[in-house]
């Protein structure tokens, strides 16, 4: 691997991220420090850098070190992996949409410049809610569990100031148009289409002989698409006017499976 390529890889990776990704890809192979250190060397990281990263990950409760030289995702690390893996089952959260809207009242949000406000609004947006009026956040009622589940979910995600909630069963045409306009549908469709093309091209590159750049891309591109899916508002297909989100999810699963195979092959050949 050339020095320029190695510098590019190190700009993308850190030892910490590499360790977490390796343990996620195949814990049965990568649970030994010997294997982790060998992988770090391939990616241009020194033994000391990798050992420091391992120690900090254990201290941060992201890894467990049950015996000398053995590591596994644990505590916060296992919980983080579980949340990230939620992207695989997003469609299972959806139900048929009857045209109703879920509304949360948030009159007691923190001031906009505060960290708490950012955490609160992030929790709302992670469940696809958009601000409609001051103190009112809304989304289509197409999530399983209905309003009760939605309120519980945003509370668990950090929204601690829901003052009340209700369902709008039927909106007049003007209100309906206003509600649908809260989401940039054209932008969502464009992002789906662009990600589909990127994944199709990346799938073709998985067979290229230059190993490290391909492995890095599986994490970079795969991570970008997964973050996008986890932040998707999960709007009904009738609002989107297409089934591109499902196409993207299916393609991402295919890319993820192929990428894991490439990683596992790489790890089996480590010295």
**Number of beta strands:** 6
| Measured distance between first and last alpha carbons | 17 Å
CATH class of the largest domain: Alpha Beta
Radius of gyration: 22 Å
Briefly note the structural class of the backbone: alpha+beta
Mean pLDDT metric: 86
* H/E element order: HHHHHEEHEHEEHEHHHHH
- Poorly predicted segments: 1-11
Largest sheet: 4 strands, antiparallel
Give me the CATH fold name of the largest domain. Alpha-Beta Plaits
Morphology call: globular
Oligomeric status: single chain
Major sheet strand order: 4-5-3-6
The percent of residues in helical segments reads 55-70%
Strand % is 5-15%
Q: Tell me the CATH architecture of the largest domain.
A: 2-Layer Sandwich
Write the layout of secondary structure elements.
Layout: H1 3-12, H2 15-25, H3 27-30, H4 33-42, H5 47-59, E1 63-64, E2 72-73, H6 76-84, E3 101-105, H7 115-126, E4 130-133, E5 136-140, H8 146-156, E6 164-168, H9 173-180, H10 185-205, H11 211-230, H12 237-240, H13 244-268
Antiparallel strand pairs: 1-2, 3-5, 3-6, 4-5
